[in-house]
């Protein structure tokens, strides 16, 4: 294989001008002739690069308010020409100089559409045309041309050129080309998704609707050691859909511990979802803690302003101390030293919090394997519709909006003779928020601001009830119950009444609702219908 020739000519046109000084330095060092346009031309000139305007190189002015700058045979012929004698003759005939390096990133379409008040016209004007055309041309011709779309690659480009006498080896050009096609594919996916959410007049379609087209692009964040099991390869990607959400795991600050595994990330996401739901229902000055294990909550507690975070966490852990071993903990406020001391009493995989005191960090550091995640903006209000959730099945992908609680227990209908007390309603609210995160059939028992028994993942609801009662033991007496779906028979009511449960919240809607209501009245149990199911399969 012939040795690649040193770079002679580069075209640079970037919207993201970060690290441009690194690029300028390498271009000067290797005496590369540089072509550029607009703001990039000015920035490079200020950095000392002898840069030529594209319009001077082509002999054609920028036209149509800058919409046409680089769409010219002297540009695309220079990029797409193969290193053959026939192409060399054509280049000479048409006085076209070869271009060996294209450094381009695109108009900030995503950033534009996320700005408050962005109009449809603004979005359309920020669809780049010349940029993707040059990137794709260079990437197609990677056998001769290098293409760089990420400012973070300038340093790598400088190292490779220094090592290879100003030339780019085939393997490097191929690597850059892969990244370039991924860049334009992601860019087009963002545009297609935006257009799918607007009608022919440019008006936004119902934000909560699922568009008829699915356009998913992802930025690879990390290759995981393996998936759910050691023989399964896995990666963690950030997708465009994550951008609409509150700060997610893709932006977590990881202070210590082993690298997050596939299962850690799944459990951490579940724990994050529950603590957000608990936080949303907190009274002023209140706090919350949750413990997760294998995608299921095993304990959750709400604390008043008089109770410390450490005390709230202890109650969440004690809800099922056995299951908490090896669990994931999420809390609603910054971890202090007292809470950290309690956290290290139990073997935990991950702790998630909006912050940590310096003293807490020192205490947690004693557990070298513990992953400590900080999400400072984890409770920032999200704008727009509930985020999309995607799940793969054989032959396709299922897409739905995130499940939100729309009808709280206090707003539901009471069909029983007895209405829940204010204290029972508070506990029913906590039960609702937890039940939403339990695998169906989901049953959650709550007493005095903490879960005491959770049953889920069973094939019959009454079995989930028995499971929750068994885990609660004596604590079931005086507890309330939340169910993610209706009771098909009265057997569950008979069981919870025998255990001492005093109130229930459930969607209602069973063919035997009358039978279930009669059972509640018979046992003196208050019940609330919300009309809203919260299955989690």
Q: What does this protein look like?
A:
By secondary structure, the protein is α/β, with parallel strands linked by helices. 36% of the residues lie in helices and 19% in strands. The chain is built from 19 helices and 20 strands. It has helices at 20-29, 38-46, 54-58, 73-80, 85-93, 109-113, 120-125, 130-140, 154-163, 170-196, 262-280, 309-318, 321-324, 337-343, 358-364, 422-435, 461-472, 491-499, 513-523; strands at residues 9-14, 33-36, 51-53, 101-105, 146-148, 218-224, 234-239, 253-256, 287-293, 296-303, 327-331, 348-353, 371-374, 388-393, 396-401, 443-447, 450-455, 480-483, 503-506, 526-529. Strands 8-13-12-11-9-10 form a six-stranded mixed β-sheet, sandwiched between helices. A five-stranded parallel β-sheet has the order 3-2-1-4-5, with helices on both faces. It has a five-stranded mixed β-sheet with strand order 17-16-18-19-20. Helix 8 (130-140) runs antiparallel to helix 10 (170-196) and helix 14 runs parallel beside helix 15. The radius of gyration is 30 Å and the shape is elongated. The model has no long low-confidence stretch (mean pLDDT 91).
